[in-house]
């Protein structure tokens, strides 16, 4: 599969078959995730690939996050109640996905920023921001690699609302949860959302 095809055809999958992908396939996908660019080549990521009863335990913990983001869903999809309902069902079951990937960045101490630092960067930690972006780049690699391998995925950030519970379940004493990714063989097809216009500004062309 060509890269352009993978980029355009990849979809967020919220319903999966029970069949579990072979471990060798998952290993290859994760390895390609590790080839993402990262801030000062720190490669500041760690991924927990979870299945079976441990995945089911995490699914139970994640479920309440759907209710937390319900007001946001109602604003975004006020005319699409079926979308809201299907999203809440996804949080309750993870769509039956057999694999759950917990994506972490290595923790960064909060340090004072020099006065010359742009205001928006003074309000956060630059190193932390770079690490989160690095993990996000690795996640995109994983999504595209999974699609090329015939698997579906869904990038989830709403579970960050229950990050403390997820961390305790995984025994995480360090690092920051950036996102979760469900993975498995897709059940059916996902709709193609149109691309929004006005997102590019060409300067000097």
Automatic annotation (TrEMBL):
**Does the keyword Oxidoreductase belong to this entry?**
yes
Q: Does the keyword Oxidoreductase apply?
A: yes
Q: Where is the Nitroreductase domain?
A: 7-185
Annotated Pfam families: Nitroreductase
- Which of UniProt's keywords are assigned here? Oxidoreductase
Q: What is this protein called?
A: Nitroreductase family protein
EC number, as in UniProt: 1.-.-.-
GO MF terms here are: oxidoreductase activity
Q: Which residues form a coiled coil?
A: none
> Whose protein is this, by species?
Heliorestis convoluta
């Amino acid at each position: 599969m060509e890269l352009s095809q993978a980029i355009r055809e990849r979809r967020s999958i919220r319903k999966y078959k029970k069949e579990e992908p072979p471990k060798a396939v998952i290993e290859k996908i994760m390895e390609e995730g590790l080839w993402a660019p990262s801030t000062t080549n720190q490669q500041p990521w760690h991924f927990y690939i979870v299945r079976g009863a441990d995945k089911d335990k995490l699914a139970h913990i994640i479920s309440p996050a759907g209710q937390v983001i319900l007001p946001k869903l109602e604003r975004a999809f006020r005319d699409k109640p079926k979308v809201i309902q299907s999203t809440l069902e996804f949080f309750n079951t993870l769509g039956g996905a057999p694999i759950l990937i917990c994506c972490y960045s290595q923790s960064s101490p909060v340090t004072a920023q020099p006065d010359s630092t742009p205001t928006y960067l003074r309000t956060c930690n630059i190193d932390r921001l770079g690490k989160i972006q690095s993990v996000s780049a690795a996640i995109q690699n994983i999504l595209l690699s999974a699609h090329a391998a015939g698997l579906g995925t869904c990038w989830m950030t709403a579970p960050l609302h229950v990050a403390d519970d997820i961390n305790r379940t995984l025994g995480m004493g360090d690092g920051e949860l950036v996102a979760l990714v469900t993975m498995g063989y897709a059940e059916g097809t996902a709709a193609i959302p149109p691309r929004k216009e006005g997102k590019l500004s060409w300067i000097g062309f």
